[in-house]
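Obj.: predict assembly geometry.
Materials: sequence records (below).
Method: joint structure prediction, all chains together.
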Amino acid sequence: MSRVVVDVMPKPEILDPQGKAITGSLQRLGFEGLSVRQGKRFEIEVAGDLTEERLDQIRDAAEKLLANTVIEAFTVRVEED
Amino acid sequence: MVRIGVVTFPGTLDDQDALRAIRICGAEPVGLWHASDDLQGVDAVVLPGGFSYGDYLRCGAIARFAPVMGQVIDQARKGMPVLGICNGFQVLCESHLLPGAMIRNEHRKFVCREQRLRVETNDTTWTCAFAPGEEISIVLKNGEGNYMCDDDTLKSLQDNNQIVFRYLGNPNGSRDDIAGVTNEGGNVVGLMPHPEHNVDELIGTSLDGRRFFESVLQFLSARV
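Observations (raw C-alpha cells):
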C-alpha cells in the first residue's frame, strides 16, 4: 500500500479569510511575525502498485474534485515510509 | 403549463420555498431528486440554496457530481434555462457552467439581510422582465458569497455583458460588486441573493423575486 499526499492551497492572489483569522489570533496570543495561509491536505491510500499511470489518475482526480483551480493550486507527492 | 424543476440535494434548505415561488408565479413546480438522472421533461431547472452535502470539501463541489447534474449540465448546454440561487450558484460555478468561484466573505461574518441590487442586463432567460439598470431588493444570506475570478475572466464578463446583478453596497468583498452572472448563452444565471424569498407580502418586504420567474415564463412562452 502506498500513500499519496495532495496539498491544496488558495492561490497567492486569492484572499484567504480563514488564514487572516488565524494570523490575527496568533498575534493576540503573542506569536509575533507569523502570517498564515490555510489549505487542505488529502492523504490517499493507493491499492496495488503506484505506477506513473496511477499518479496521473490522482492528478486528474485532484484537478476534477479535490481542488477548484479557479481559486486553488495543488501539488501531488508520494509519501515515503 | 410551463413546468419548472427544483433539485433537492442532501442538505438543500430552500427547495420548498423555490417550489412555492414557482407555483405563486403561475408555473407548475416539479421536485427533482439529486440521485435520479430523470429531469421529468421540465422546461427549466432551479438549483436552490442550502448546504448541499454539508458544504464538505467546498460549497457545491460534491453536488456538482450528483447523478441529476449530468442531465442538468447537458440540457443547460443545449439552452435550457437554469437558475442557481446561493448554494445553487456555487454548484453552477463548480460545474463550470458559470465562470468564477465563491470564497468565504471578506469580513468572515455570515450575512443575512435585505440587499439592494442593480439589474445590469435583461438579456437572460431569468431577467428579461426587468429593465436594465433597475434597482431591486432581494434577501441575501450566506457565509461564502465572495465572488472571485481572474482578470481575464472579469474582462470577458464585462465585455460580453455577462454580469447580471451588482450589489449596491458590497456585503462580502465580491469582485467588481458582482452578485450574479450568466453564461455566454444567457440561459444559465447564478446569483447569491434569494429571489424565492421575495414572492409573498407576508414574508418579504419586496416582491421583486417574482419577476425572475415571470421572466422565464415570458421567455418560454415566446419560444413556443
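Conclusions so far: Chain B has a mean pLDDT of 96.
To do: check interface contacts against the pulldown list.
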